[in-house]
Design brief:
With about 250 residues, the protein is an alpha/beta fold. Helices cover about 40% and strands about 25% of the residues. The protein contains ten helices and ten strands. Helix 6 links the parallel strand 7 and strand 8. The chain is globular and about 55 Å long.
């Protein structure tokens, strides 16, 4: 579980996060949503220490991460998996070498143990047998799955995903969402996803945190969001006429 308490973050005179508090539970997919400039990317980067917060606390299973120095944070960071927006694979490394990279950096595993772990993770994301291919030789969706395999190769307790469906077609996006949800539940991971994808919100949003102009403007589940009367949230979520019709239908049933 990750708990954030009264998070404030400014850049110069601009206040970007204004008193954000939330709780992200293990085994659930938690989504941070909001318009561009709402503060969601800054919040995620603050939670993993890429930005230092001005006020508040970030707690990893009760341990105050925000009070630790660089070396003290290393133990928690070894428990964190990251899925970057563009997959962030190394072009000069094979798929196997990309996935193995965190094991080379942070573990004392033998070469055989590393190979076995890489093979297991590739199989888990339904990408068995592509070890020797380079990122340029596989599709964007396949690269994203390799990114997920690398993110889970160290058995993380916490998984951060930055726009995991960016640049993907709708069908591939559904596959990625399903995979992230399965892995989160199967391994009881605390998963936090920064996203603009409303399909993700509706399909896998166990917990949704909506930021608006640096404030926590709403929180709830993908079931709650259909019934919300928060005007700014509704304008953001139901921007398309199709989603507006879904909301109307759901309101009639209730």
């Amino acid at each position: 579980m990750i708990v954030i308490q009264d998070i404030h973050k400014s850049f110069g005179d601009k206040l970007v996060l204004n008193g954000i508090s939330a709780q992200f539970e293990a085994g659930k997919t938690s989504l941070i949503i909001g318009t561009s400039g709402s503060g969601k990317t800054v919040l995620m980067k603050s939670m993993i220490g890429l930005f230092e917060i001005d006020q508040g606390a970030v707690l990893y299973d009760g341990v105050n991460f925000s009070e630790m120095n660089f070396y003290e944070r290393k133990n928690i960071r070894t428990k964190v998996g990251m899925l970057f927006q563009g997959s962030a694979l190394f072009d000069s490394l094979t798929v196997e070498e990309n996935i193995r990279f965190p094991l080379d950096m942070f573990t004392d595993m033998t070469n055989k143990e590393k190979k076995d772990r890489v093979d297991f993770c590739l199989d888990r994301v339904n990408m068995k047998g592509i070890n020797k291919l380079f990122p340029s030789e596989i599709s964007g969706g396949m690269q994203k799955r390799v990114g997920i395999a690398r993110a889970i190769v160290q058995n993380p307790q916490y998984l951060f995903c930055d726009e995991p469906n960016s640049g993907l077609d709708p069908q591939t996006s559904i596959l990625i969402d399903t995979l992230i949800k399965e892995i989160t539940t199967e391994y009881n991971i605390t998963t936090i996803i920064n996203t603009h994808d409303m399909n993700s919100v509706m399909e896998i949003g166990d917990y949704i945190l909506y930021l608006h102009q640096g404030h926590k403007h709403w929180e709830g589940s993908n079931v709650d969001i259909i019934k919300s009367d928060n005007r700014e949230l509704n304008d953001f979520i139901f921007a398309s006429s199709f989603l507006k019709e879904i909301k109307k239908a759901a309101q009639k049933k209730s």
